[in-house]
Design a protein that fits this description.
Length: 496
């Protein structure tokens, strides 16, 4: 009931308007409205005590039939003998008869009535309306930026529908001309305003822009995009073979771009403000390893002739919960073996063209210290012992002495270990009847978080260790882990 009570009704949907609302809606001064409605023959005024309301629809019909607006002169005819003058300055310049003439007519209270323009069917044309030689109709108006604009229609009624929308948009402060840009131009404008974005984010922006350049949707005017158009575009991408994650990323760029258009008064609503439930989520979920799977996996890595060299790296990830790019960014100076602390305040990335760069952690909460367990400490010492010092330490954005180096002495990046772990898993599943699930560096991170939650670590402490910006992310893992533990215990109890 309270929700319904607070819901406001737009002016253009109200049957009766106050003088203030009518003045805003019709662009007529309150004083003049009061003067007009003082006439006893008015059929568009409703008196409630001393309060007077304007019947919106009746007044609209009245203005269409009896109003004449030219030059700086506006005349309303209430009857055959009565003339009311109003809104002198706002209409100036629409039809020029000379400023001196207009003021003289005003002073003398005599209207100047030019020849009434009609279309080929004998219908009176309003100010700004005209009919071209090809019989199409045109409406000229001045937008919010002071520029002359034109809209066209093959029918007078259709033209007036456009006029009404333009007037309504103007009343609400919408920049109609700005909404005339294409979707591609809007996204380019949005991307151009972004500063200090990560490399992967820039890659994502370019990916979306390339999609829009190839798709017809990219050249559609922004102010003509509806929710159904946005959904149809995403479904079309799905039909062409795009996956859920890819489409969701595209929507993740288009939604804030269109929101910028809403904020800039180009649009009333964001057509991409909807849930992604129209496309089936076929993306693979990252699932933590069970303790039994974790033991099988580590035992295999430890004993494999080829992959055993990566055992210590996997142990560090599994024992710290670091993001793979954070691990690759570790330098020797980030390790404090006396205090048993690992400082995490940056991450290492490499572009497609082979350029290395260091950037901040994914979130502000990503800056943290992680405790070295005995197992992690031993693994880190083994990595340092086997690390071949290059002739010249590579310096990346002021950082040097990276912990993990490739065979050429250059810092390793996430791709190195990701490829290793994929080949490792393929080899294991090819030689074992009992398969292991998909295991990636992020799965190791998720597994660490799950193990800590299972062992009762405080959620806030776990949030700090993981570098989560939002504790709900941590709690989701915590809740899942708790349920798994409960389910296992119940299964054991009921089996007795």
């Amino acid at each position: 009931m309270e929700k319904h009570k607070n819901k406001s009704v737009p002016i253009w949907e109200k049957s009766n308007l106050t003088l203030t609302e009518a003045a805003e809606y019709f662009n007529i001064g309150e004083h003049k409205l009061r003067e007009i409605t003082n006439n006893h023959k008015c059929n568009f005024v409703l008196f409630i005590g001393t309060k007077r309301l304007i019947k919106r629809k009746e007044f609209e019909k009245y203005l269409e039939q009896v109003s004449v607006i030219y030059g700086i002169l506006a005349v309303v005819c209430l009857d055959k003998t009565s003339l009311i003058w109003y809104d002198i300055d706002t209409a100036f310049g629409t039809r020029s008869v000379g400023e001196k003439v207009c003021y003289r007519l005003l002073k003398e209270r005599r209207p100047w009535m030019p020849n009434k323009r009609k279309d080929n069917k004998g219908r009176l044309l309003r100010t700004g309306e005209s009919q071209r030689k090809d019989l199409t109709y045109m409406y000229r108006y001045t937008d919010m930026r002071g520029k002359r604009q034109c809209v066209y229609a093959d029918d007078l009624n259709k033209l007036r529908e456009k006029e009404k929308k333009i007037q309504l948009d103007t009343l609400q402060g919408l920049d109609i001309s700005g909404g005339g840009i294409t979707v591609l131009e809007l996204v380019e404008r949005y991307v151009g305003l972004r500063r200090n974005v990560r490399y992967n984010t820039t890659v994502g922006y370019n990916f979306v822009l390339n999609i829009l350049r190839k798709e017809e949707f990219g050249y559609q005017q922004v102010n003509k995009v509806r929710v159904v158009d946005a959904k149809r575009f995403l479904l079309n991408l799905y039909d062409k073979g795009r996956g859920y994650s890819s489409i969701n990323s595209i929507k993740g760029v288009l939604k804030p771009a269109f929101q910028m258009a809403v904020n800039d008064d180009y649009l009333r609503k964001n057509p991409f403000d909807f849930k992604m439930d129209l496309i089936p989520n076929n993306s693979q979920k990252r699932v933590a390893m069970t303790e039994e799977e974790q033991e099988r996996y580590l035992e295999y890595v430890r004993n494999d002739e080829h992959f055993s060299r990566y055992y210590d790296e996997i142990i560090v990830l599994l024992g710290t919960g670091m993001r793979i790019s954070e691990f690759m960014g570790l330098t020797l100076s980030d390790l404090d073996f006396e205090e048993r602390k690992i400082k995490v305040d940056h991450q290492l990335t490499r572009t497609r063209n082979g350029k290395y760069y260091v950037e901040k952690t994914k979130t502000e909460n990503g800056v943290r210290f992680i405790y070295m367990t005995d197992e992690v400490k031993e693994a880190l010492l083994n990595i340092i012992a086997s690390r071949q010092k290059p002739r010249k330490e590579m310096v990346v954005d002021g950082y040097k002495g990276f912990l993990l180096l490739d065979k050429d002495g250059k810092p390793k990046v996430a791709m190195h270990l990701e490829h290793v772990m994929k080949r490792l898993l393929d080899k294991y599943n090819a030689t074992h009847e009992e398969q292991l699930p998909r295991i990636t560096p992020h799965v190791l991170r998720h597994t660490f978080c799950t193990r800590m939650a299972e062992r009762g670590m405080n959620p806030k402490t776990l949030q700090y260790l993981m570098g989560h910006a939002d504790i709900t992310v941590t709690l989701n893992v915590y809740t899942h882990a708790s349920y798994t533990k409960v389910a296992d215990e119940m299964a054991q109890i009921t089996a007795v």
